[in-house]
Design brief:
Blueprint lengths: L27 H20 L3 E4 L2 E4 L5 H15 L1 H27 L6 H14 L2 H30 L4 H24 L8 H21 L1 H14 L6 H11 L3
Antiparallel strand pairs: 1-2
Helix pairs in contact: 1-2, 1-3, 2-3, 2-5, 2-7, 2-8, 3-4, 3-5, 5-6, 6-7
């Protein structure tokens, strides 16, 4: 017998936690960001072969470029998920290793025997010669740091959904940059001329603080870029893309 007050309306089912949305690769945006990340990393590896002293601060020539690679990694992780971010990390490093092999071939090729040729050869060896060790340091450091950065960001997104983007960017960046800086400085310090423990501690602390502060200061810009790409990615938030990425990241 129907209720006098009319048919009963069942309450809508509320999900246990927010749904993490992602996009699948299909638009030009991912390719542009991947290419930019690779270029930034390759240039950073070259710049890192030069030690830089600005007053009491000890750093390397790639200090102003490297944070951009992490910012791009944050954007890729937030928009496309952990699986795509991991692919970007490995692709970037494959290209970096290829560049290092090219430097080795260029240095090994016989040059002119005159004074100009000898000076050019010495300049190439001085600038590009240490790069393979820098690439090794960068490979291990960036691989570990970016993977941790991306994993933490996506895990946090699985809990909060689209909310608290600033917290994801800052929390993941701090952890990733610490691991990255410690590994990179431990391997690359001798190449750029850091020989004592005090200089090494200075190098690690300054590198970590600087890169983390840059990322924190750029959080508003990074957030705007992420929002801009999300609105223009046709597949962002499409259930199939979200479910696929969530399964890969371990999110429910």
């Amino acid at each position: 017998m129907p209720s006098p007050s009319g048919p009963r309306v069942l309450p809508a089912t509320v999900p246990a936690h927010p749904v993490a949305k992602f996009a699948s690769i299909g638009s030009p945006y991912f390719g542009i960001m991947l290419a930019s990340m690779a270029v930034v990393l390759i240039l950073s590896n070259i710049g890192a072969s030069k030690g830089v002293a600005i007053g009491p601060i000890i750093t390397d020539g790639g200090f102003f470029l490297f944070p951009l690679a992490y910012i791009l990694g944050d954007v890729i992780s937030e928009v496309y998920g952990f699986k795509v971010a991991r692919r970007a990390i490995f692709t970037t490093f494959a290209l970096s290793v290829f560049a290092s092999v090219c430097y080795w071939v260029i240095i090994a090729l016989p040059g002119f025997d005159d004074e100009f040729g000898a000076s050019k050869q010495a300049a190439l060896e001085g600038a590009l010669g240490p790069v393979p060790q820098i690439v090794l340091a960068s490979l291990l450091a960036f691989l570990a740091g970016q993977t941790i950065n991306s994993w933490i960001l996506v895990k946090m997104k699985a809990r909060s959904g689209e909310r608290s983007l600033w917290a994801r960017l800052m929390g993941s960046s701090g952890a990733g940059e610490f691991v990255d800086t410690l590994i990179f400085c431990s391997i690359a310090a001798s190449v750029i001329g850091i020989t004592d423990f005090g200089m090494f501690v200075n190098y690690v602390v300054v590198g970590f603080v600087y890169k983390t502060l840059v990322e924190f200061l750029f959080v508003p810009v990074t957030s705007l870029v992420i929002g801009w790409i999300k609105k223009r990615e046709p597949s962002y938030g499409v259930p199939s893309a979200s479910v696929t990425n969530a399964a890969v990241t371990g999110a429910a």
